[in-house]
User: Fold this.
Amino acid sequence: MLNRGKSIILLSLYVDDGICATNNEKLYKQFLKDLSVEFELSDQGLCEGYLGVRIQQDLANKHTTLTQTQYAKDVLERFRMTGATPISTPMEPNTHLSVSN
Assistant:
């Protein structure tokens, strides 16, 4: 995290992948320039996904949505549960379980 008054840059790195968030475009460009002196990097523009998380950004309304739908589908597939039938309540409400059940 880099904090310069009201400006902030958040950087998350995982192996050779990273994501950067900021509220100051000028500071961001200087930050990338400084980093590129030591590291090979590129600016891919608005991020659409990172480490299995899908990122949808509505810049006009300042709204960001994070989802892991594909991850959930992959888990269901891995455990061979893609044909499972979803229900809103997996058991009768107010059911009391005991050791003998």
